[in-house]
């Protein structure tokens, strides 16, 4: 996975608005619905979504910048800090300890398990005397307890190093598009067991919901675990989820807002026509019934909020009209704010 800043094409100093703008531009360009004949675009779209999941979240972005998570959002392993507070060392000075009576002990492994070749003070607080406790920490107390511990001549059984729990579950994270969440579909998922399975995505799946695949986990002595597929829904370049409802900003021209007219509004099922009444102000919200996401109580709605957009280039005639209007028909839309 590439650096998320490189994926979105923004510098590390970019603010949240610049990151969101870059994501929306790329997501709209690479969305699978607009690139059905280009299989590479789906991979790039997923990469862009993953990058935005990190950089669009303030906490995750800071964690990535500090090197705490990688480009996929997974925690990085920074290594051990050493034993006894000395990086790379052992308790009380251990291997390579300096002056002050520190000593080395050697260990061998044979039919009788681990054996200590005693140096002076073997088992003492300095040197390598805490080896039994170290093994207990690493492998768990059960590994030592089954044989009465490591002290007193008891031995360490190699088969206890990797105990097999009965039927362990495995977890996999999958990101789907908003359209897949609404309409359902199938996804091929690679499991930690090495298997590749086809997962059915039911319509109306919520963000963070899990799908359980029985018997697709790790085997144990008497059972096989399950695979738990945690589903995340990727941000959409146009729609924002609000429970079962969807929201979008609907750009309209100045003359459409003043005079009214019919405009095309995108939905997950295709575009529909919406009648804008004359004198519509920016911010007015229209509800399109049943055009949201599937839900138990019935589908949600699409909430389209009007945003008046002026011409991209200046217009002298419009400027003259506005000056005349300002002087002849002044009004104060902010009178209720004072």
UniProtKB/TrEMBL annotation:
Q: What is the lineage of its organism?
A: Bacteria, Pseudomonadati, Pseudomonadota, Alphaproteobacteria, Hyphomicrobiales
Protein's gene = cbpA_2
* Keywords, alphabetical: Chaperone, DNA-binding
Q: Which SMART domains match?
A: DnaJ
Recorded hits in InterPro entries, A to Z, give: DnaJ_C (IPR002939), DnaJ_domain (IPR001623), DnaJ_domain_CS (IPR018253), HSP40/DnaJ_pept-bd (IPR008971), J_dom_sf (IPR036869)
Q: Do you know which Gene3D superfamilies this protein is assigned to?
A: DnaJ domain, Urease metallochaperone UreE, N-terminal domain
Q: Does the keyword DNA-binding apply?
A: yes
- Pfam families recorded: DnaJ, DnaJ_C
- According to UniProt, the name of this protein is Curved DNA-binding protein
In terms of CDD domains, this protein maps to: DnaJ (cd06257), DnaJ_C (cd10747)
Q: Where is the composition biased (Gly residues)?
A: 89-101
What PROSITE patterns does this protein's entry cite?
Answer: DNAJ_1, DNAJ_2
């Amino acid at each position: 996975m590439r650096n998320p800043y490189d994926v979105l094409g923004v510098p590390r100093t970019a603010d949240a608005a610049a990151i969101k703008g870059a994501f929306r531009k790329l997501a709209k360009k690479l969305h699978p619905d607009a690139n059905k004949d280009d299989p590479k675009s789906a991979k790039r779209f997923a990469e862009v979504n993953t990058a935005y999941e990190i950089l669009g979240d303030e906490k995750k972005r800071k964690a990535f910048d500090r090197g705490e998570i990688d480009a996929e959002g997974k925690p990085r392993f920074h290594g051990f800090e050493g034993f006894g507070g000395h990086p790379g060392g052992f308790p009380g000075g251990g291997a390579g300890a300096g002056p002050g009576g520190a000593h080395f002990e050697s260990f061998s492994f044979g039919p009788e398990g681990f054996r200590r070749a005693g140096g002076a003070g073997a088992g003492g607080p300095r040197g390598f005397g805490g080896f039994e406790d170290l093994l207990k920490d690493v492998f768990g107390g059960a590994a030592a307890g089954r044989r009465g511990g490591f002290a007193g001549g008891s031995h360490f059984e190699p088969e206890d190093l990797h105990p097999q729990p009965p039927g362990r579950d495995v977890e996999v994270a999958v990101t789907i598009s908003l359209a897949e969440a609404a309409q359902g579909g199938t996804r091929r998922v690679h499991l930690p067991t090495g298997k590749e399975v086809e997962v059915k995505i039911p319509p109306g799946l919520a963000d963070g919901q899990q799908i359980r695949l029985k018997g697709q986990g790790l085997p144990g002595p008497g059972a096989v675990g399950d695979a738990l597929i945690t589903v995340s829904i990727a941000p959409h370049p146009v729609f924002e989820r609000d429970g079962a409802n969807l929201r979008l900003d609907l750009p309209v021209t100045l003359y459409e807002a003043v005079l009214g007219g019919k405009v095309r509004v995108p939905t997950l099922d295709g575009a529909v026509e919406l009648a804008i009444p004359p004198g519509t102000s920016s911010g007015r919200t229209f509800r399109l019934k049943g055009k949201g996401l599937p839900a138990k109580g019935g589908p949600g709605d699409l909430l389209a909020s009007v945003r008046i957009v002026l011409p991209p280039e200046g217009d002298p005639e419009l400027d003259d009209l506005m000056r005349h209007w300002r002087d002849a028909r002044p009004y104060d839309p902010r009178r209720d704010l004072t």
